[in-house]
Amino acid sequence: MAVVAGNWKMNHGPEAARAFFAELDLDDVSEEHEIVVFPTDLSLGTAVAAAPTRVSIGVQNVHPEDSGAFTGATSAALAAEAGARYALVGHSERRHLFGETDEETERKVAAALRHGLTPVLCVGETLDERRAGRVEDVVLRQLDAVLETLADGGARFLLAYEPVWAIGTGETATPADASAAHATLRGRLRTRLAGANDVPILYGGSVKPDNAAELLGADEVDGVLVGGASLDAASFAQIARAVDGGGV
Ligand code: PEP
């Protein structure tokens, strides 16, 4: 099975969310594949109500605390109550635009696990880090910061390798680059988890209908996390149709 996830970022209010799910046609996509959509918090309730049962809904971010005086934030507890099943944690935009640290990422993973949300931990290097030959260092540092929490949580989780230079830029990692980074992550998981081979590792970074099959066919790539191309129901469905032939 493979996982196809869409991150709408700060797009699609409730009306657009309703229209997206009315148009989304997954009839040709085998039921064994997992489809997840991450709408904005404002569209979460609409997405939960409008999405077909085979599509799970997640939040793009959670606050480490469960409740309290944190104006503008969403807790994992509230997201779970509103029907979310997944939580993105450590997306590169949270790390690089909002200054989220590895330590905060770990606390967010713990919060998601406390409330039964499946965390999708995002890791990835910047262009400078890649040019300096530091891909392994960076992705392992980001994974190591949360690995104990993930492993000891005993619950299911996903990883997403998203090279920062490939997000929203039209640049895509080659399938070989993606496989190499995924193999590094898988190797680290194996040192800590009996079920390491069952952890889906998604690739994200300018995935489009025309490159999805190739990326999904790469070794160790178990799915894709799609940003821009997930906003359009037809292109998201086309990417989901590309999973047959790739994935775990
Ligand atoms: C993302 O936001 O996780 C992402 C991969 O974006 P895009 O597909 O637009 O590069």
Give the arrangement of secondary structure elements.
Elements: E1 3-7, H1 14-23, E2 34-38, H2 44-50, E3 55-59, H3 76-81, E4 86-89, H4 92-97, H5 102-114, E5 118-123, H6 127-131, H7 135-153, E6 158-161, H8 175-192, E7 201-204, H9 212-216, E8 223-226, H10 233-241
Parallel strand pairs: 1-2, 1-8, 2-3, 3-4, 4-5, 5-6, 6-7, 7-8
CATH H-level homologous superfamily name:
Aldolase class I
Number of domains: 1
Radius of gyration: 17 Å
Order of H and E elements: EHEHEHEHHEHHEHEHEH
> Which residues sit in consecutive blocks of at least 5 with pLDDT less than 50?
none
* Biggest β-sheet description: 8 strands, parallel, barrel
Give the structure's gist in a few sentences.
The chain is α/β, with parallel strands linked by helices. It is built from ten helices and eight strands.
